[in-house]
Amino acid sequence: MQNERFVTVRTDHRNPDFRLLVAELDQELSLRDGPDHGFYHQFNGIEGLEQVVVAYEGSVSVACGAMKPFGTDRLEIKRMFVLPPYRGQGAAQKVLRALE
Q1: SS3 category, 21
Q2: 0.85 exceeded by the pTM?
Q3: Quick one: CATH architecture of 2-99?
């Protein structure tokens, strides 16, 4: 399986690799969202995210995702991101499986 090359680590919003990946995500979203980025940005804070997964290839953090619970029976997947050179190689799938 392709995604066996990625190792996932469960962590939280304080993880420095997660924070770096989210900064990359925010840059990409800023370009995509254009003038609307400020509006969307208010919903994308990471403080308080306690269920975070970071995927690594060797020592390089390449992907991330988090869960934000809403009550006891709902949640939202937040801050899903894969660095462009690693897209299409199973890293996102690995992150989602770890979040499950």
Answers
A1: helix
A2: yes
A3: 3-Layer(aba) Sandwich (3.40)
